[in-house]
Amino acid sequence: MLKLLADENIPRRLVAELRTRGHDVRWVLEERRGIADPHVLREALGEQRVLLTCDKDFGDLVYRDGREASCGVILMRVHGTGSQAELIRIVLPVLESHEAQWPGHFAVIQRRRVRIKPLPERGR
């Protein structure tokens, strides 16, 4: 079972489908709409939830600004999808099949590939 914090830019239907399939998903749009990205990342880390987002700024927070993100970050970059249903057909199998790899990694899900990179070690 995935334990996710879905950023406010994640489509409602994807959040609903994940929940229907038994995943533990908190959604920023329902609970804390408009909070700043650093706070979203801190919440994910505090609850050990993998952060699911469409916002490239999280890459800057982790790699440029050195923010802790050992919980894992998944960036969805699936361009050209015609509907939320198509997005779900692409993303959901990837989320579930790589479930054990998400913590400790920064991943980018694209239409035809998935890039998974270990997060930088902190405190060195």
Q: How is this structure best described in words?
A:
- The protein has 124 residues and is of the alpha/beta class.
- The chain has one domain: Rossmann fold (3-Layer(aba) Sandwich).
- It contains 5 helices and 6 strands.
- A 6-stranded mixed β-sheet has the order 2-1-3-4-5-6, sandwiched between helices.
- Helix 1 crosses helix 5.
- The chain is globular, with a radius of gyration of 13 Å.
- The mean pLDDT is 93.
Features:
single chain; Rossmann fold
Provide the fold topology:
Elements (H helix, E strand, L loop, with lengths): L2 E4 L5 H9 L3 E4 H4 L5 H10 L3 E4 L3 H8 L8 E5 L6 H14 L7 E6 L3 E5 L6
Helix pairs in contact: 1-5
Unreliable spans are none
| Largest sheet: spatial strand order | 2-1-3-4-5-6
Described by the principal axes of the CA atoms, the overall outline is globular
Helices, by number, come to: 5
CATH topology: Rossmann fold
Q: At CATH's second level, what is the architecture? A: 3-Layer(aba) Sandwich
Task: Please give the largest β-sheet.
Answer: 6 strands, mixed
Average predicted local confidence, pLDDT: 93
Percent helix range: 25-40%
The total of beta strands comes to: 6
Q: How much beta, percentage-wise?
A: 15-25%
CATH class: Alpha Beta
Distance between the termini: 32 Å
